[in-house]
Amino acid sequence: MLKITNLHKTFNPGTVNAKKALNGLNLTLNDGDFVTVIGGNGAGKSTMLNAISGVFNPDFGTIEIDGVDVTHMPEYKRAKYLGRVFQDPMKGTAPDMEIAENLSIAARRGTRRRLVWGLPKKERESYKPVLAKLELGLEDRLSSKVGLLSGGQRQAVTLLMATLKEPKLLLLDEHTAALDPKTAAKVLEITEKIVNESKLTTIMITHNMRDAIRYGNRLIMMHEGRIVVDVSGEEKSKLTVEDLLALFSRASGDEFSSDRAMLG
Q1: Are 125 and 77 in contact (CB under 8 A)?
Q2: Per-residue model confidence as pLDDT tens digits over 24-45
Q3: Would you tell me the crossing angle of helices 99-107 and 121-132 to the nearest 10 degrees?
Q4: What is the pTM assigned to this prediction?
């Protein structure tokens, strides 16, 4: 479903601020893989997601989604293949629009738009059972402005919007990092439910090592723009945080030094 080959990206090349963000990154995801990604600050995690999303073009290398080369495809064109949830709950939604209106925008991703008079009642009602799956009572608040929701509620709606049309690839960029522990646990529970029910191919960046081990069928750790640890299946399920740190040290020749991840 995803194939990244020898991907390189340097920001501000030729200057004193030059930063090699991706350094020959290679990654292949099979259909239905749920991959958690962990790494220190500047390891290239979010840069990888931005490259997949088309936020910038790589210096060289290729990106394929479901067999389609999207390396130089404009961001708006490849959006039909992707769903993405950001760390900031304020991103990914239109805060001054109703919950139902936000969902209607998501339902039309990748299609030709046309002007219509309001949101049809039948379509509005169709969102109730979808929202009910979140178990947050939002099915009774279709007309509520998204900007008035709590961070957790808003992130749950954003997750629903990102998966409403079952994208080829779901990208979760530390989507629980800005939430309190209880709310983060609820959003992760919803995430796992949606991903498993729809069998979505998913990449989830997290700063929490325990979450990285607990969720998904595969775990990768990045360092200096490349993957240094890649475990899956039974090997992953038996990991402890201490095991993961030891794996990183052996693979990178360095100690893992991200305070945010350690706190996890």
Answers
A1: no
A2: 999 999 999 999 999 988 899 9
A3: 100
A4: 0.91
Rounded CA-CA distance 204/199 in Å is: 14
- For domain 2-90+169-263, the CATH superfamily is P-loop containing nucleotide triphosphate hydrolases (3.40.50.300)
Provide the token pair at 88. Answer: 């900031």
Q: Which residues contact 82 (CB under 8 A, 6 or more apart)?
A: 52, 53, 65, 167, 168, 169, 170, 171
Cα–Cα distance for residue pair 209/207, rounded to 1 Å: 6
Residue type, 87: Q
Residue with tokens 């039309």: 108
Contacts of 207 (CB under 8 A, 6+ apart): 38, 174, 177, 258, 260, 261, 263, 264
| Helix, strand or coil, per DSSP, at residue 28 | strand
DSSP 8-state class, residue 7: E
Q: What does the domain layout of the chain look like in residue ranges?
A: 2-90+169-263
Q: pLDDT of 68-85, one tens digit each? A: 999 999 998 998 899 999
Question: In this predicted model, what pLDDT tens digit does every residue of 138-180 receive, in sequence order?
Answer: 999 999 999 999 999 999 999 999 999 899 999 999 999 989 9
As a whole number, mean pLDDT of residues 114-134 equals 85
